[in-house]
């Protein structure tokens, strides 16, 4: 691949803008030797040795990130208001292939959100074959009635305008108005609709884990790249 295409695809600018970076001698190898638009990756430089303004390049394609999504941010590249991309380096929004969220969390839902630019990995994470459990903690408007766990575990709960009942889900009571719910599928607004079907209302919702991936002590609003060990943990969950 030509270095021009590589660097433009990483979101450093349009081809025209990146051409200017090259012309100004701002793209170099690790020894400060100037590189050129037509130079080839793997022939004239590797991803690890390229520098832009002396800084290493952003990570190559195949990125998997975890974000601690705060409430109030939308999982979209173009929407009104605050977007999850506002919490990432600006270049990440401009990458090709795009960095997309793995499924979505509602605007007011907080917690673990995965993002990747690897389509095959995204499908593997959301595939019913992988059956990665997703764990949520919900704060409710009203005290639990006591029959919710059985209802959610029944495998017969049918949400409004759905054709198929929900798969069995596990619920644990944390407090009279707090519950932990483990889902094995991802339907639209699923947790909120499940509690609505049980005569309650979710006031706050937080995703704790996806598969074996957890936020640990990642502060709200922060993100980090997931390495090979994180990926093994994700699918082992
Ligand atoms: N279920 C919901 O209702 N909202 C989310 O954001 C995720 C799961």
Summarize the structure.
The chain has 237 residues and is an alpha+beta fold.
Structure description:
The protein is of the alpha+beta class. It has 3 domains: about 5-55, RNA-binding S4 domain (Structural Genomics Hypothetical 15.5 Kd Protein In mrcA-pckA Intergenic Region, Chain A, Roll); about 65-130 and about 215-235, Pseudouridine synthase I, catalytic domain, N-terminal subdomain (Alpha-Beta Plaits), CATH 3.30.70; about 135-210, Alpha-Beta Plaits (2-Layer Sandwich). It contains 6 helices and 12 strands. The strands form 2 sheets. Strands 4, 5, 6, 7, 8, 9, 10, 11 and 12 form a 9-stranded mixed sheet that branches. A 3-stranded antiparallel sheet has the order 1-2-3, with no helix packed on it. Strand 10 and strand 11 (about 215) form a beta hairpin. Helix 1 crosses helix 2. The longest helix has 10 residues, at about 5-10. The radius of gyration is 22 Å and the shape is elongated. Uracil binds next to helix 5.
């Amino acid at each position: 691949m030509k270095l021009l295409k590589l660097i433009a695809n990483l979101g450093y600018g349009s081809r025209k803008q990146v051409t200017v970076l090259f012309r100004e001698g701002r793209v170099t190898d690790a020894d400060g030797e100037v590189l050129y638009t037509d130079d080839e990756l793997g022939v004239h430089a590797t991803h690890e040795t390229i520098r832009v303004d002396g800084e290493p390049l952003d990570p190559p394609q195949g990125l998997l990130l975890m974000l601690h999504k705060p409430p109030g941010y939308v999982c979209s590249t173009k929407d009104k208001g605050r977007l999850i991309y506002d919490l990432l380096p600006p270049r990440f929004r401009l990458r090709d292939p795009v960095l997309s969220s793995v499924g979505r969390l509602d605007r007011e839902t907080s917690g673990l959100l995965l993002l990747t630019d690897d389509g095959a990995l995204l499908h593997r994470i959301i595939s019913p074959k992988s059956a990665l459990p997703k764990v949520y903690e919900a704060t409710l408007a009203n005290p639990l009635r006591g029959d919710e766990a059985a209802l959610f575990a029944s495998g017969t709960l049918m949400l409004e305008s759905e054709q198929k009942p929900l798969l069995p889900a596990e619920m644990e009571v944390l407090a009279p108005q707090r519950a932990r719910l483990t889902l094995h599928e991802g339907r639209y607004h699923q947790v909120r609709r499940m509690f609505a079907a049980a005569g309650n209302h979710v006031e706050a919702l937080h995703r704790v884990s996806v598969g074996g991936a957890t936020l640990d002590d990642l502060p709200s609003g922060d993100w980090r790249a997931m390495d090979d060990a994180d990926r093994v943990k994700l699918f082992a969950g």
